[in-house]
Design a protein that fits this description.
The complex is a heterodimer. Chain A is an alpha+beta fold. Chain A folds into 2 domains: 367 residues, ABC transporter involved in vitamin B12 uptake, BtuC; 77 residues, P-loop containing nucleotide triphosphate hydrolases (Rossmann fold), CATH 3.40.50. Chain A is built from 23 helices and 10 strands. In chain A, the strands form 4 sheets. In chain A, strands 6-5-7-8 form a 4-stranded antiparallel beta sheet, with helices on one face. In chain A, strands 1-2 form a two-stranded antiparallel sheet. In chain A, β5 and β6 form a beta hairpin. Chain B is mainly alpha-helical. Chain B is globular, with a radius of gyration of 19 Å.
Chain lengths: 575, 309
């Protein structure tokens, strides 16, 4: 047992301790001004890249790299933030691609009837020699494809909700296999294995993107920048905290009031939407799509990218995607050429034909195994640096009453009579074992009730049943006169009963502040849209939720929690 | 052939495929039963097994359809090829466990599974780089001996496949149910903590599970080669996923379940291809995988609630 505890402790320190070779970008992150400077510099380089490099082939490779970075960002929402391992993510990429491919190409051409006339006025279709030519604008299709992919994200995500990690991965893998096969077997919609023909290139103000890679590069860049921004906003919001809580400990997240179903589906939907939007860009650039572009290896490649860069870290997954794409498009080909030249020089037949580009999957495999064995947090770890406490902070004592903003807890009506919590005939069975048999209990308001019993007498089972973590077989539980038996944990928590755990179930990869704020989850209401827009109302909500330290009895001004600045709330020791 | 004969023929084909899937599924089920790990490396241990079998047959001077063996010679050649494929695959499985998976033992979540995807990719590419991308002819040393059963044809190869599979299954069942190590395996699968406390060397049990599962994958691989008369670096994924579906369908963790599941998947593949369309068989099989996992995760023979939370 002690060995296990030690192992666990070692694991925890491993999770928390930053790697010894942390990249300097983390240091940049700590200093807002330097970070702004660094980001602007990176962005300028990215914007100037096409005119500087002045080579369409390289710009094309860069545009592809950006597409995969966008996909990696989407997968990161599902796998990195919410911890749901999706092995069929390329399916959503396919859905986005084929949505655009079908509605902006010569693929579908029903006969022209008057039905289509209103659509023609809107510019969505054209009458082409008596057949309908779909030509929906790329700019309209991008959000539409994202929405359709999001719908499929929910559709494929819903069946997996109750499954645990590896089963979930297999079910997503199954969907990931089914989608390209259906695409291949539905030639009217997709032209099957031959691929879509005549996908329309996007136009902007009458200028057609055509086949030059540069405009696609800029759209890709804009998309990646937007998705990074969206990812960061989501991550450091009520939504992101809920996802990460689910990832770290589902049970504890539920006990903190997180609606697991809703937030898991939200992660699937948003992750899929990223892929759907990217799919439109990719198919517009390539001007065709074949089912082979969306098979299992693509999903694995995206997984390798985020594992390599740092699961859960927005910068990390982009860097991972870009590095692996650059490796694939440039470095390996150059290296192959050098080796082939060397082979000709020393006259070794074998070396003249080495094609390293085909061994990229070997490198992917090595990266996965190496990262899992030696550096699970990736190149740029998602977990925050552990800030050493100053002596003053270490000696500080937490004070009661420092936080005056517990507005979520409504005061109990002083005049209320009758029991607050009433349990009748509560029975819980695990197979043949009856853990609770006809438990009855009544708890008046303004009272403290202790449940005492030996090990295995069912105390925890009672608490779990009351808080909805396990379902009771029989009986009723009424809180303030309302039946709560059979309700989800987050509903029970919203009613006003919270579960704590004997062995504290903190979320180890969340900051102290985030651990505290998770407890406020049910009392806040910012959703994904609010988190993205970060409206004044949302900012105020977060600010007020943040426990703010009191120094000498004076509240220091609350502030929006900066991205990575975890600060412990402490007050100086009493004199 | 009449419709009935065609169906009967497809049942016969399905049984042969099913035998192969069953052997392959056992590897998934044994490792999952003990470690709760979905082992993607198993796909390509199978693929490498088929190459080991091929090389063993070639070492005996058999290649293509050149030579037909009979009697003791045939028996000896097959025994040698099976021994090489099974032993080689078994050792490969043990090496994978030792190098890539043991250091990760006890880490919760999907770390182990991601690692096995990586290992699978590595194995795949080693063969791609070492043996080339083109598919290889598999020697068929068996004499053309056929029996006609109401219009359908059974040949010696199929009878041998069934006999070998049956023998391996019975052997495995005896091992698991009668030997001390087999008992330790069953105990570990049910509760590794308790087994450890009872003095079971869990590491040894895990090594044994990887060895047996991988060796059976090697046998399945040789059967694949003899049945389809080819092998290539690509065969692992689709056969592996079908076998995994078989394991899930039978109830992952259950050895008899894997056997039954394998036969069912084999029959679905051939009969589905016959009655619906070959291009939809994959969709049917993956739909079964999804539906079983979602609605009946314990499968046909699985234990209820295998979760350890």
């Amino acid at each position: 047992m002690t060995e296990q505890v030690e192992q666990k402790a070692a694991r925890l320190t491993q999770i928390r301790a930053p790697g010894r070779w942390v990249l300097p970008s983390l240091g940049i992150a700590a200093m807002p001004r330097l970070r702004t400077l660094g980001v602007s510099l990176l962005l300028s380089i990215a914007v100037l890249f096409p005119p500087l490099i002045n080579n369409d082939g390289d710009v094309d490779a860069a545009a592809n790299a950006l597409s995969f970075a966008a996909l990696a960002l989407g997968l990161n929402i599902v796998v990195g933030f919410a911890g749901l391992l999706d092995l069929g993510y390329a399916a959503f990429f396919a859905i986005g691609a084929y949505t655009y491919g079908a509605l902006a190409s010569f693929q579908l051409h029903p006969a022209w009837t008057d039905f289509w006339q209103p659509f023609a006025w809107l510019g969505l279709v054209a009458n082409l020699n008596g057949t309908v030519h779909f030509q929906v604008s790329f700019w309209l299709m991008m959000p539409l494809a994202a929405a359709i992919a999001a719908f499929f994200g929910i559709l494929f995500g819903a069946p997996t909700l109750r499954l645990k990690g590896d089963y979930l991965a297999i079910v997503t893998l199954g969907f990931g296999e089914i989608v390209p096969i259906v695409a291949r077997n539905s030639p009217t919609l997709t032209n099957g294995a031959q691929g879509l023909n005549g996908v329309i290139p996007p136009q902007i103000f009458g200028y057609s993107f055509g086949i030059s890679a540069t405009p696609y590069y800029y759209v890709g860049l804009a998309l990646v920048v937007f998705l990074m921004f969206a990812s960061q906003r989501l991550k450091f919001s009520r939504v992101g905290r809920a996802w990460m809580a689910i990832r770290e400990d589902e049970i504890a997240a539920a006990a903190m009031g997180v609606n697991r179903v809703k937030f898991k589906l939200l992660a699937f939907a948003i992750g899929a939407a990223f892929a759907g939007a990217t799919g439109t860009l990719y198919v517009a650039k390539l001007q065709t799509a074949t089912p082979e572009m969306f098979m299992f290896p693509v999903s694995v490649m995206l997984l390798v990218m985020i594992v390599f860069g740092g699961i859960g870290n927005v910068w990390g997954v982009v860097v991972g995607a870009l590095i692996l794409q650059i490796l694939q498009s440039w470095f390996l080909q150059d290296l192959s050429r050098w080796i082939n030249a060397l082979g000709r020089l020393v006259d070794i037949e074998w070396l003249q034909h080495v094609q390293l580009a085909s061994s990229i999957e070997l490198i992917f495999g090595l990266i996965l195994v190496f990262m899992m064995l030696y550096r699970r947090q990736g190149l740029i770890p998602a977990s925050r640096r552990v800030a050493a406490l100053t002596t003053e902070q270490q000696t500080a004592l937490p004070t009661r009453g420092g936080f005056d903003n517990l507005q979520g807890l409504g005061a109990l009506d002083e005049r209320r009579t009758g029991p607050l919590l009433e349990i009748e005939n509560l029975t819980v069975r695990f197979g043949g074992l009856v853990a609770l048999r006809s438990v009855a209990l009544s708890m008046p308001a303004h009272s403290v009730l202790a449940v005492i019993g030996p090990n295995g007498s069912g105390k925890s089972t009672l608490f779990n049943a009351v808080t909805g973590l396990i379902a009771a077989n029989e009986g009723s539980i009424r809180f303030e006169g309302e039946e709560i038996a059979g309700r989800s944990p987050h509903v029970v928590l919203e009613r006003g009963i919270a579960r704590t755990f004997q062995n504290l179930r903190l979320f180890p990869n969340l900051t102290v502040l985030e651990n505290i704020l998770i407890g406020m989850h049910a009392r806040l209401d910012a959703g994904a849209v609010a988190a993205l827009a970060r409206l004044p109302r949302t900012q105020r909500e977060e600010r007020e939720a943040c426990p703010t330290p009191t120094v000498d009895g004076v509240r220091s001004p609350g502030r929006w929690p900066r991205n990575r600045s975890c600060y412990c709330s402490t007050s100086p020791p009493p004199a | 052939m009449t419709d009935g004969a065609i169906l009967l023929q497809q049942v016969i084909n399905g049984l042969s495929l099913g035998a192969m899937y069953a052997l392959l599924a056992i590897g998934f089920t044994m490792v999952y039963g003990i470690l709760e790990l979905i082992n993607f490396a198993h796909f390509n241990v199978f693929m490498i097994g088929s190459f080991l079998g091929l090389w063993a047959l070639e070492a005996l001077g058999l290649s293509g359809q050149s030579r037909v063996l009979t009697g003791l010679e045939l028996f000896g050649a097959l025994a040698f090829a099976f021994a090489v494929a099974m032993l080689g695959s078994g050792l490969l499985g043990v090496a994978i466990e030792r190098i890539a998976l043991r250091p990760l033992r006890g880490i919760p979540g999907t770390t182990g599974m991601i690692t096995t995807i990586g290992v699978s990719y590595i194995l795949f590419n080693i063969i791609l780089l070492g043996a080339g991308a083109e598919s290889k002819n598999y020697p068929n040393p068996m004499p053309r001996l056929q029996w006609n059963i109401s219009g359908a044809v059974v040949d010696l190869r199929e009878v041998l496949i069934w006999a070998i599979t049956l023998a391996l299954m019975v052997g495995l069942q005896l091992f698991v149910s009668r030997t001390r190590l087999g008992k330790a395996m069953r105990a570990t699968a049910q509760d590794s903590e308790a087994a450890r406390m009872m003095g079971v060397d869990v590491d040894r049990v895990i090594v044994a599970a990887f060895f047996l599962g991988s060796a059976l994958a090697g046998a399945a691989a040789l059967i694949f080669g003899l049945y389809y008369n080819y092998t290539s670096f690509l065969i692992g994924y689709s056969a592996g996923l079908r076998a995994f579906t078989a394991a899930v369908l039978g109830g992952i963790g259950s050895v008899p379940g894997a056997m039954v599941g394998g036969v069912i998947i084999g029959l679905i593949e051939t009969l589905g291809g016959q009655l619906i369309a070959v291009r939809w068989t994959d969709v049917i099989i993956f739909s079964i995988l999804v539906l079983v996992l979602v609605f009946a995760p314990t499968g046909l023979f699985g234990r209820a609630a295998p979760t350890k939370s």
